[in-house]
What we know:
By secondary structure, the chain is of the alpha+beta class. It has ten helices and 13 strands.
Amino acid sequence: MSETEENLPSERESAHEGAVGKTDNPFADPGLPPHEHRIQDIDERAARRSERTVALLFLVSMLATVAFIASYVAIPIDKIIYVFPLGHISALNFALGLTLGVALFCIGAGAVHWARTLMSDVEVADDRHPIEAAPEVKAKVLADFAQGAKESQFGRRKLIRNTMFGALALVPLSGVVLLRDLGPLPEKKLRTTGWKKGVRLVNQSTNLPLRPEDIAVGSLTFAKPEGLEESDEDFANKIAKDALMLVRIQPQNIKDKQELAWSHEGIVAYSKICTHVGCPISLYEQQTHHVLCPCHQSTFDLSDGGRVIFGPAGHALPQLHITVKDGFLEAVSDFAEPVGPSFWERG
């Protein structure tokens, strides 16, 4: 017998089996150990206790979510507390982190306890199969799914099912509430400015109240409300809405009737803020009475109600109704519509 024949696998296995026996083959399939039933599988009272435990965890998650929302509303943002061993920390951050952590943990713990004590834990062995499933395999998968749904007792354990739905429905509210931190609510701030009846127009360069004779035909003058100073803490925010530009046009050249009624001897006042993305308008063409936004070239006709004649802006420039009192130009009211870029609630 040759060396090759002596080393054939069949002969090696036969020799090995003869020496140590078939049961000692280290490569033999040991099979599955006998299944051990859990206490919940054989005692309905134990199963009920597990059900109540899972439901309690889901209920605690629901309460923690409610506490998260209540903490966000009730705790001042600047309140500081001492927590050992963390030291002095924000009471709001501590409460939000604690309640949200409890809410998420209890959902996870409830799901794990449910799976470990009530869902089926019978070991199932299955052979590998091709990637493309045969019709009988698909039917078996559907049957296994139906059996798994039955063994999970999802339909039977209504207390678990209902409390789980409640916990999962409330937890997303935490994220919705956090959207409040995107910024303060605008309320009416987008619709109102610092202009109102009786407020004088002040030259933004000289900081002096404007008289009609200060505005020459063909000139462009920038103005702000009286009382608004550059030293004010919120000057930048206010001037972003209050900035005004004035030009003097021959009354016979004004085409819009409202514009003519809201002007004084051909002096018209319009918002300086472009209605596209809020850039300041600063380029004026005397012959055509057009103003140009330098950012995206939106062009407005100040002799025709400030309407858009070119560019991406979607609305005409808001006009300020002005008059003269005691020789000085002043506002009759606020702008008739919101200034600056368009927004979805804009009328």
